[in-house]
Amino acid sequence: MADVDADDGCSLKNPSRRRLRIKPQHEAEKHIRLKTDKAGRGVFALIPFSKGDFVLEYRGKLFPPDSPPVIETYSETEATFLFDFQWKGKSCLDASVEDQSLGRLVNDKHKNPNCKILDGMPHLCLFAIRDIVPGEEVTYNYGDSDWPWRKQV
Questions:
Q1: Coiled coil where (predicted)?
Q2: Interval 63-84: pLDDT, tens
Q3: How far is CA 64 from CA 77, 85, 126, in A?
C-alpha cells in the first residue's frame, strides 16, 4: 500500500471526496535507496537516470539571509549538512536533522560527479549531468572547499 497523507484541504463532511497524496519520500524510494558500507552512507540509483533527469531534492530547514545559522552551535558532523546558496541573497539550508530524506546523504565526488544541484529557488534539486545506471552511487561536487576526505584521494 502506498504511503499517503489525506489532503486536509478537502471537506470532512464528505470523506469520500478526500484526495490522497503520495508522500515524495515514498515515491523517491522507488528510484533510489540508501546504502551503508565501510565508507559510510550513500544514495544509489535503483533505476536508470538520463542526463537532465531530476534525481532528488536536498531538503532541510531554510535560513534566510537576514538570520543565518550560528555555525558554532553545530558539531563538526552536523556542519557538513549546511548548504549555502543564492536565493534573494545568501541563504543556508540546514539538513543536519535525521529526517529520512535521502538528498542529505548524497556523497561528494569532485572529479567526476553524476549530478549537480540547481538552486535559485528555496528548493535544492539534484539533476543528472550524465546517464546514471542502476546500482551506481548518486554523487555531486560539494564545491571548492578543503574537505578532509579529499586529502585522502
A1: none
A2: 666 665 556 666 666 656 565 6
A3: 22, 10, 21
Q: In the CATH scheme, what is the homologous superfamily, with its name and number, of domain 21-140?
A: SET domain (2.170.270.10)
- What cell does 47 get? 533505476
Look up the pTM and report it: 0.50
Cell 545559522 belongs to residue: 69
* Sign of the alpha-carbon dihedral angle for 63, 7, 125, 100: positive
Q: Where are the domains of the chain?
A: 21-140
Is 83:90 a contact under the CB 8 Å cutoff? no
The helix, strand and coil proportions of the chain, stated in percent and rounded to the nearest 5, come to 15, 35, 50
Q: How do residues 31-65 score in pLDDT, each as one tens digit? A: 665 566 656 778 889 899 999 998 887 776 666 66
Residue 16: what pLDDT?
Answer: 46
Query: Which is it for the CA torsion 134, 77, 126, 152, positive or negative?
Result: negative
